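Journal club side-thread
Mid-discussion, someone asked how the predicted structure for our own chain would compare to the paper's figures. Pasting it here so we can look after the session.
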Amino acid sequence: QVRLVESGGGSVQAGGSLRLSCAASGFTYSDYSLAWFRRPPGQAREWVAVASKWGYSGYTESVKGRFTITRDNAKNTLYLQMSSLKPEDTAMYYCAARRGTYDFRDSQYNYWGPGTQVTVSS
């Protein structure tokens, strides 16, 4: 049974940092590309960052230089280090997995976690 579980969310002041984790089980982790998405309040879900199975990392423009995505294939865990947080980063954050190459579209991901809330106050 495939399972993705996010953790590490919380409330922080602008300029602060958080590290999100996503623990995965039930599939061959190294065969999958992994991504972080987020859904701001009242808005559609949007892609944040991706870590492909081959080691490629990519970021949406608004988080470049502030967020870092990493994956630990030995621990089946995906991370998102978030620094210099802004109020506009407030959202529910989700990790997602898809077999094979990476994609930026949420419709292309097969597996999702329940999400973890990040709230950034000004």
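Post-session note: The chain is about 0% helix and 50% strand.
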